[in-house]
Amino acid sequence: MKHTTHADFALRVLLYLRVAPERRASIADIASSHRVSQHHLDKVVQRMSGAGLVTTVRGRGGGVHLERDPASISVGEVMRAMESDFAVVECLGPVRFCRVAGVCGARSVFAEALDAYFAVLDASTLEDIASNPQGLRGALGLVPGVVGN
């Protein structure tokens, strides 16, 4: 299963905010550190704000900051907020055209696998994935004299 760019960017934003010295940053700063499109990041941050993951403040001194403690934000919550389709096979989705749907065992196997996948993501928090804050700061160019890769 591959997640969308929005889910990937959401995790990048959260990692940045977790390790950013001021904990409030502009979308331009975050985009520059990750070398991604500011336009796409704008959309991602809007969606994250609607999901209660971040707060945005407009104007001078504004920016983006974490809405909650990093230990209370699960990776599973982020994925569910950013993705709309987890049907790894057709029979898990709302529309079923498969001729053997309902009579084969694939649906239950993939549903169980998806449940296990989310169990791992739900048990992992932003704090867990940001367990090397100094390394992340260096990679993002947030340490004076160190340029991100």
TrEMBL record:
PANTHER family: HTH-TYPE TRANSCRIPTIONAL REPRESSOR NSRR, WINGED HELIX-TURN-HELIX TRANSCRIPTIONAL REGULATOR, RRF2 FAMILY. The keyword Transcription regulation does not apply. InterPro entries: Tscrpt_reg_Rrf2 (IPR000944), WH-like_DNA-bd_sf (IPR036388), WH_DNA-bd_sf (IPR036390). One of its GO terms (cellular component) is cytosol. This is Rrf2 family nitric oxide-sensitive transcriptional repressor. GO terms for molecular function: DNA binding; DNA-binding transcription factor activity. The lineage of its organism: Bacteria, Bacillati, Actinomycetota, Actinomycetes, Propionibacteriales. Its cofactor is [2Fe-2S] cluster. It comes from the Bacteria. It holds the Pfam family Rrf2. Keywords: DNA-binding.
